[in-house]
Amino acid sequence: MGKLLNFIDKFMYGRYGLDPLGIVIIAVSLLFAIIGRAFFLFYILALALIGYEIYRILSRNIPAREKENSIITNMFNRTERSRDDYVHFSCPNCGQHLRIPAGLGQKRITCPKCNARFVKRT
Ligand SMILES: [Zn+2]
Question: Which residues contact 111 (CB under 8 A, 6 or more apart)?
């Protein structure tokens, strides 16, 4: 077993390997393989996707593979960022739900409901 792992280690040296895009490709191809039991065309697509992903895993052109992967990671990062655009909190005086843009540092806030003033770190 150790010998086999050693062989895989050597074989994979300098190759790209699995990334988030690869996991998505494998998941989609598994789904296509299942659909392919009813529609043969999807079975072909599943085989094509698996073939493509094996090519990506074994590829030595790492910048090209990272560029492909960035399509997926950018998609996730964008949703992450929009969620973190604002800091949500409650007014310590009246409990009114408030939000302020994130990343402003120390900020003086006047509650629009009860006019209480306080300082908030973002
Ligand atoms: Zn208030």
Answer: 91, 93, 94, 96, 98, 117, 118
